[in-house]
Q: What sequence folds into this?
């Protein structure tokens, strides 16, 4: 699944690598791999047409 970070759009499009509970590892175009707490940050899903 491809996502964007709502408050950090300069990170670019990210691809979810793994999900364990509320912990989501996302590989972003411009920020690399980042561990996101999904209980705090609502990642925005994107369509492939938007990427």
A:
């Amino acid at each position: 699944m491809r996502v964007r970070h709502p408050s950090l759009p300069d990170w670019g499009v990210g691809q979810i690598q793994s999900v364990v509970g509320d912990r989501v590892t996302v590989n972003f175009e411009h920020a690399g791999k980042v561990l996101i707490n999904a209980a705090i940050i609502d990642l925005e899903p994107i369509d492939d047409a938007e990427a």
